[in-house]
Write a structure and sequence with these properties.
The chain has about 325 residues and is mainly α. Helix content is about 70%, strand content about 0%. The protein is built from 13 helices and no strands. Helix 2 crosses helix 13. The longest helix has about 40 residues. The protein starts with about 20 loop residues before the first helix and ends with a helix.
C-alpha cells in the first residue's frame, strides 16, 4: 500500500512585539537617568546633606565634641556669635579679603590675558611664568612670603630697603599692613591662573570679528569695549564665582602668613570655626557660625549668579 504523507502545517507568522508607548519610554529613560545620578546623589547626601544637618543640630546645643550629653540651648549660640568680637573681626577681614582679591585679580587678569594673547617672542615661556604661582601650594606660598615680609632687617624686602638707608617696616606686625600684605600675596598668586582662564576664552573668539571691526574703523578701545568684553562675560562669571567662593572660605594663606594676627587683624571665618570647634571645644558655637557662614555664602553666590546672568543676557 502506498504511504500517504501528511502535509506539514504552515508555521504561523511571528507577531511583532507591541511597541512601547510614549509613557513607557519616558519611564524607562527616567529610571536610567536616576540610576546614572544615584552615585552623585549618594555622595551629596553623605558628604554634604548629612554634615549640614548635623551642624544645624549641634548649633542648637552646647555640644563640646567629646561628651555625648548635649543640652538644647535653642538659638543662644547664634546670639553669642554676633556678640563675639573675634568672630566679628574675622567676618570683617574675610569680606575685605574677598572684595579686595576679587577686584584686584579681575582688574589685572583681563589686561594680562590680552597681552598674553598677542604674538611675541617667548610667549609660551611668559605664560608659564605667570601661571607658575598658582601651581605651588598656597600654604607654601604663605611660608615663603612670611620670610619675604619678615618685619626684622633679615626680611627680603626690609633688607632691600635697608640698602637705601630706610628703617625696617613691620609688614606683618602692624594690623593694616598685615591685611594689605595678605591681599597682595593672594593677588600675586591668583592673577596668573585667572589670566589663563580669560586667555582660553579670548582664543575662542574668531579673528574675523576683529578684522571686520578694524575695517569699520573701530579703535582698539572700541574693539575691547564692544567686542572683547561682551564675549568675555561667561569667563567673567566663572572667574568671579571662583574668586568669591575662594575668598569667603580662605584659611591656608592668612594662617601660614600671619597666623591670623596681629591680634585678630587677619583672622578669617574658617579659622574661627576650626579653632572654636577643635581647639576650644565649643562645637555648638562653631556650628552656629558655620551655619550663618553657609547661609551668607549661599546668598552672595545666588546674587552674583543672578547679576552675571543679567550681564550675559544684556551682552549676548
Amino acid at each position: 500500500m502506498a504511504t500517504v504523507l501528511a502535509r506539514p502545517r504552515p508555521t504561523p507568522p511571528l507577531q511583532a512585539a507591541p511597541r512601547p508607548t510614549r509613557l513607557e519610554r519616558l519611564r524607562r529613560r527616567g529610571i536610567e537617568s536616576y540610576l546614572f545620578t544615584l552615585p552623585v546623589i549618594v555622595v551629596f547626601v553623605v558628604l554634604f546633606a548629612i554634615p549640614l544637618a548635623q551642624s544645624f543640630y549641634y548649633s542648637l546645643t552646647d555640644f563640646n565634641g567629646y561628651s555625648t550629653d548635649a543640652t538644647f540651648v535653642s538659638f543662644a549660640n547664634y546670639t553669642t556669635v554676633w556678640r563675639d568680637g573675634s568672630m566679628l573681626a574675622a567676618l570683617g577681614f574675610t569680606l575685605v579679603f574677598t572684595v579686595g582679591t576679587t577686584v584686584a585679580i579681575t582688574a589685572l587678569a583681563i589686561p594680562l590675558a590680552l597681552v598674553l594673547n598677542r604674538k611675541f617672542f617667548g610667549r609660551d615661556l611668559v605664560r608659564s611664568v605667570f601661571f607658575f604661582p598658582s601651581v605651588v601650594s598656597v600654604a607654601i606660598l604663605g611660608l615663603v612670603w612670611g620670610f619675604i615680609f619678615a618685619p626684622l632687617g633679615t626680611g627680603v624686602i626690609n633688607a632691600i630697603i635697608g640698602w637705601f638707608g630706610a628703617q625696617p617696616i613691620a609688614w606683618l606686625a602692624e594690623p593694616t599692613l598685615a591685611k594689605i600684605s595678605v591681599i597682595l600675596v593672594a593677588v600675586w598668586g591668583g592673577t596668573g591662573w585667572h589670566a589663563v582662564l580669560y586667555l582660553a576664552y579670548l582664543q575662542a573668539i574668531p579673528s574675523e570679528f576683529y578684522e571686520a571691526a578694524g575695517i569699520d574703523g573701530a579703535t582698539r578701545w572700541q574693539q575691547f569695549r564692544y567686542l572683547t568684553l561682551p564675549l568675555l562675560t561667561p569667563a567673567l562669571t566663572v572667574s568671579q564665582l571662583l574668586l568669591l567662593t575662594g575668598g569667603l572660605k580662605v584659611y591656608d594663606l592668612p594662617y601660614t602668613l600671619t597666623g591670623g594676627g596681629p591680634g585678630f587683624a587677619t583672622r578669617t571665618l574658617t579659622q574661627s570655626i576650626i579653632e572654636n570647634g577643635i581647639a576650644q571645644g565649643e562645637v555648638g558655637k562653631a556650628s552656629a557660625l558655620s551655619v550663618v557662614f553657609f547661609v551668607a555664602v549661599g546668598l552672595i553666590i545666588v546674587a552674583q549668579l543672578a547679576l552675571s546672568r543679567r550681564l550675559e543676557a544684556r551682552f549676548s
